[in-house]
Amino acid sequence: MPQRRISFGLERTAECALRTAPPIGAAPPEEAPFGCVMRRLMELEDRLRLFEKRVDGAPLWEYARLRVHYELAAQLDLLQIETERRPLGTVGALQWGLGSLREAAAASPLRVGRRDIVFLGYPRRQLQSDRRWWDVHLDPLLEGLPWSHVYLRRRDRRRHYDPIPTRHSVPHDAIDLHVAAQRLLRPLRLSTDDRRWLAATSESLCRTFGVRLDLGPIVAPLLGRRRALVGCYRRMFARVRPKLVVVLAPNEQEQAAVEAAREAGIRTAELQHGAFSPHDPSYAFPASAGRLACFADDLLLYGDYWREVLSSPPPQVRVRTIGFRHFEGNRARHPRGASDRIVFLSQRPIGRPLSRFALDLARHPRFAGRVVFRLHPDEADWRERYPWLVDAPLDVDDGGTCSLYETLASAGAQAGVYSFALFEGAAQGLKTFVVGLPGSEAMTPLVELRGALKVRTADDLVDAERTTRLDVPIFRPGARDNFYEYLRKVVGSPDA
């Protein structure tokens, strides 16, 4: 299945979309759209005991749940899911295969020797000021790491970033090739009973949410990849014999690594790699889910705020706070100065309404010359998408002259909808305003904990601008020391 871009939809409001679904129970007043979907899904999971179903030896619902949630949200117009790439085709498949063969021939995870720790890196990287592509979540922690380790480097949109700062890095391509070959030569065949179960569950989902959904085409490729991935990780872990496996997300590759590690008695940890909310399908589970086979033993969070957000983790999970070293380093390099500017942090899915909001504010006498509209890298075509900004009385920042952290350091306040950068700005001491557009419910915990204020119009923001800055412990300080302390407890001393 092609990689997808997930974004909040704006064509219909979520409230209207959810009217098509028959109620399972009375919804709480003012319930957020994503919260309503999550509540209904968990009620259905409890009633049908979905987490108990196994296919081909796999915990089916653990692997399928996130994809099913995306499909539900897309059909309810809560998300827009756009394909980021076209199918490979014959020529593209050959190019990918030859490139992966070259990487696999140079180094393979299946040939790595004994290591204390295996890190399964996140595919996406960011270009930093040193002109290298960084895994901003792991690379700042791995610099000078005294424990023996290997970092599995994966492709992002069929490419490997270069150059990178990551030491002890091995491309994941040999495993990717094995998975592709296994899916071609040994495709997963669902039994008659499994197909009946999937059909019945699909019907229940359709009745509950008022959508059309067939689980068969979703589940079969997922479990086919899972079977090949788990087999590869079993072989690798038997050779490497790590004491700890660290992943950065609860997606299918990470789930397969956790499943294989748990079978071998190896401890696993997931390091937080972005924002999540109480209704995030990766972290909110019904009581009937019990102990999950594919969720890491330890969840390493940025700070105490995220403990508050985490509503119902699996019962076996130990939650620890580590911090976010990438944020710490950038905050130290770009200290805040005195400023009355307000930065709008845009994102393509909500760029049009947010840019009009920013323009309304810029036209207010109190904010003349103070408004900056910071574009997301996906908004390079802003002149065509937002023509009203071309000659507007505000500064449009395309990121070409300064980094995001420099922009935040030069401001006194920020506004946005659900960008992770809002948390980084709030932790730097900026007054934070959440604009009430679709997707803003992801910021509800920050608003409820008085780390941000929610506004619906430019006039609301003008009235609220005089408020004092609000403090919430979003990132725990001392990320590297905290991470090393965790490793000493789990792995032992580096020279042991």
Largest sheet data: 7 strands, parallel
Low-confidence stretches: 1-30, 81-85
Major sheet: order of its strands?
A: 9-8-5-10-11-12-13
Q: Structural class of the secondary structure composition?
A: alpha/beta
- Beta content comes to 5-15%
Question: Termini distance?
Answer: 44 Å
Number of strands: 19
Principal-axis shape: globular
Helical proportion, percent range: 25-40%
| Overall average residue pLDDT | 87
Distinct helical segment count: 18
C-alpha Rg (nearest Å) = 23 Å
Structure explained in plain terms:
By secondary structure, this protein is α/β, with parallel strands linked by helices. Helices cover 40% and strands 14% of the residues. The chain contains 18 helices and 19 strands. The chain has a seven-stranded parallel β-sheet with strand order 9-8-5-10-11-12-13. The chain has a six-stranded parallel β-sheet with strand order 16-15-14-17-18-19, with helices on both faces. α10 links the parallel β12 and β13. α8 crosses α9.
What's the SSE blueprint?
Elements: E1 4-8, H1 14-18, H2 33-48, E2 54-55, E3 58-59, H3 60-75, E4 79-83, H4 89-106, E5 117-120, E6 126-127, E7 133-134, H5 139-142, E8 149-153, E9 169-171, H6 173-185, H7 192-209, H8 215-240, E10 244-247, H9 252-263, E11 267-271, E12 298-301, H10 304-309, E13 318-321, H11 325-333, E14 342-345, H12 351-362, E15 371-374, H13 382-385, E16 395-397, H14 404-409, E17 413-416, H15 421-427, E18 431-435, H16 444-448, E19 453-455, H17 458-464, H18 479-490
Parallel strand pairs: 5-8, 5-10, 8-9, 10-11, 11-12, 12-13, 14-15, 14-17, 15-16, 17-18, 18-19
Antiparallel strand pairs: 1-4, 2-3, 6-7
Helix pairs in contact: 2-7, 3-8, 4-6, 6-8, 8-9, 12-17
